[in-house]
Design a protein that fits this description.
The protein has 173 residues and is of the alpha+beta class. The protein contains four helices and nine strands, in the order βαβαβββαβαβββ. Strands 1-3-4-5-6-9-7 form a seven-stranded mixed beta sheet. Strands 2-8 form a two-stranded antiparallel ribbon. It is globular.
Length: 173
Amino acid sequence: MIFNEAVETDVPGLVALINSAYRSPGAVAGWTHERGLLEGPRADRQAILTALSNGRMKVVRPSSGTDPVACIHIALDEDLGWYLSLLAVVPEQQGKGVGGALLEEVAKQAAIAGVRHLRMTVIKQRRDLIAWYEARGFRSTGETVPFPYDDPSVGRPLRNDLALIVLERRLSS
């Protein structure tokens, strides 16, 4: 696996990757899909360009010059931690350790940079995904954040009880 920083030419591949991981339109969906919770695209070109301008995206490629098979967005949190979002792995690679390897690469880089914690929000109804993050050292802070029902960039909610929980992983300095 090759870990790189995403660049603008990666945007079309990132849009396809993220939408296939979160909102796979076909019959075969990876375990990280959001069916039953949200519908519609999870990302478009503008959303990825915005993410690139508000932080950076780390990508995983199977070999040099190939399209990314996994990605994660990294932004500076208000208290100088790293806020992670858009962790996505193409459905065909899910369950093979790609997402975990990417998350560990980010944690390693954060520790080297002196970052003390990684933080993210996850839809509270996604219990399997929360358990996956907990197995990788993340813990609930006890904080919940209202779901952004008025933000069309997250898709169309199919339920009215969605909320986000805050997960955090402390890093040793």
